[in-house]
Amino acid sequence: MSFLLEGLRQALHLLTHDNPYIWHLVWVTMKVAFVSTVAALVVGLPIGLTLGLGRFRGRGILMVLANAGLGLPPVVVGLMLSVLMFPQAPLGRYHLLFTLHGVYIAQSVLALPVIVALTASAVSDLPPGLLAQARAYGASRLQLAGLALREARIGIMAATIAAIGSALSEVGAVVLVGGNILGVDQTLASAALEAVDGGHFAIGIAIGILLLGLVLIITALLTVLQQLGAARRMGASS
Amino acid sequence: MTAILEVERASVQRARRDVVHDVSLSVAAGEVLALLGPNGAGKSTLLEAIGGVIPARGEIRRHGRVATVLQSPGLARRSVVANVDLAQAWWGVPRGERRPRSLAALTELRVDHLSRRYAGALSGGERRRVHLARGLAVRPDLLLLDEPFAGLDAESHAALVEDSTTAFRAASSATVVVVHDRADAWALADRVVVLLDGRIAAQGSPEQLLADPPTAEVARFLGYDGSLRSGNTVTLTRARHVVLDDGGDQEATVLRVVRREDGARVQLGLAAGSVWCEVTRDGVEPVRLAVGDGVRARILGGVTFREDA
Questions:
Q1: How far is B52 from chain A (nearest CA, A)?
Q2: Cβ contact, residue pair A132, B70, below 8 Å
Q3: Looking at CA atoms only, how far is residue A31 from chain B in angstroms?
Q4: What is the pLDDT of residue A232?
Q5: Residue A174: how many other CB atoms lie within 10 Å
Q6: A196, exposed or middle or buried, with CB in 10 Å at 0-12, 13-18, 19+?
Q7: Using CA atoms, how far apart are residues A217 and A221, in angstroms rounded to an integer?
Q8: At a CB cut-off of 8 Å and minimum separation 6, what does B265 contact?
């Protein structure tokens, strides 16, 4: 219990005293979460739409793979990517290992199945007939995609919340691909791990509390946006 | 009049089975044509082929743009007026023209007061009206409607048919509407095509078809539910061809009495077969006929076919 209280006290101290180390950790963590989620959305939304709306051979297998991807172990992903980023490996010439760009890629790979699987699930649940009716009025592919995304926005927002939440708190891939280098790619989660490893439990708890707060604030903001959309949709019978 | 649609010897398959056989028809500008038939007759399949949704053998010529209003009223999660605007965006109507057209179409179908309401908050009948308003708002040369009144309660159904009749007449589009309820076809259409087993069994104005159905099969489908045999001919009657009359020349026995709001439909057994007639309630008194009663009736008309024809 005293650990926790000491952690709280240190967290307060870290936050109330201008601490460049902490603010840098917060900044890197947010950058990693934001960049990887946006990258996963850019790549994952079209794939999720195709899987959710398309009717083609092999779609079932791809859906199984996307769903299986939700359980991708970050450590395995980190290990595989770091092997691919070794100097003599296929991605070696891009010098991504132990860089922030490498961490972005690793986190994007982890977020991608979340976006793909949950988007596919959300759009395949759209009211039957809506997209067929849009096609019957001559909607273009782009208009159909826009309609599906807008109609499934509650589910897609849930996918975004899940992706950003995991990117904020993930450790395995950051450590293996980024090397957990202070001032380069160390995030709040990997810094907490390092603090605990080094026996600095109070600092670990303090960083953990900060991380928890960050996760809560960001996911709460996204949830409010999501629920505003849902309330707007459900309400207004007057 | 200019033909907007010409179908020549069209046949359509579903699951490698011919569902529509050798159909030929045409629709003129401004005309409302009803495709009428029982379930499984191939009406919706023919409509989809006309709309170009599924392929057909033979020839289908469309002179202008075709909009299909599908059976399921799938509305987007936005306001009613935004849904109608959206259909026009898909159709390619310039942005500035959409809203006035949407409001006009919603007014035509008497749902303009719901224009700001979210689609999810509409009743089934209101959804159907908005669904139809989208079709009117895009102003196609040919409007195809697949069972636009399906799944409504009797009151909403009747009200929507009445309002649609006015709306379709006001629109300049040619319209093809699939219905399986005869009353809807009579109310809506200038011309009715009866499809039985994927073939055109009859076509003509509602009055023509009712007065002179070409075959016994068509007559039965159109509500000729009485049947009197004589030699190798059969005379089919509708309820309006039969009256109960103490001085009538036919002795009959009451076989069934089906009570209705304003009287009853009564099935009579005669020596030559059975017929149905309608008995109107006398003021507030209920219809006093019962099964087994002996009555006298007069047959005022009907259509006669040779049995071997």
A1: 9
A2: yes
A3: 33
A4: 63
A5: 29
A6: middle
A7: 6
A8: B239, B257, B258, B276, B277, B278, B279
Cβ of B67 within 8 Å of Cβ of A136? The answer is yes
Question: What number is the average pLDDT over the span A168-185?
Answer: 88
The closest CB to that of A237, out of B73, B90, B121, belongs to: B121
**Tokens for A69?**
């991807």
pLDDT digits (tens, 9 = 90+) for A94-136: 999 999 999 999 999 999 999 999 999 999 988 878 999 999 9
pLDDT digits (tens, 9 = 90+) for B153-175: 888 999 999 999 888 888 878 99
Q: Which residue intervals of chain A are DSSP H helices? A: 2-16, 20-53, 59-69, 74-84, 100-124, 130-136, 141-151, 153-169, 172-173, 188-197, 201-234
CA-atom Rg of chain B in angstroms:
23
pLDDT tens-digit profile of B210-247? 999 999 999 999 999 999 999 899 999 999 999 998 89
Would you state the structure tokens that stand for residue B76, as one six-digit string? Answer: 């987007």
Tell me the pairing of strands B233-237 and B226-230: antiparallel
Whole-angstrom Cα distance, residue A216 to residue A221? 8
Nearest CB neighbour to B51, from listed A130, A131, A136: A136
Tokens 């038939």 sit on residue? B37
> Phi/psi of residue B202, each to 5°?
-165, 155
The answer, for B77 touching chain A at a CB cutoff of 8 Å, is yes
Which of B38, B30, B35, B39 is closest to B50 using CA atoms?
B35
The mean pLDDT of B272-286, rounded to a whole number, is 84
Q: Which residues, other chains included, contact A66 with Cβ-Cβ below 8 Å and sequence gap of 6+?
A: A47, A48, A51, A113, A116, A117, A120
Please check the confidence at residue A238 and state whether its pLDDT lies above 50: no
Is B291's Cβ below 8 Å from some Cβ in A? no
CA distance A161 to chain B (A): 22
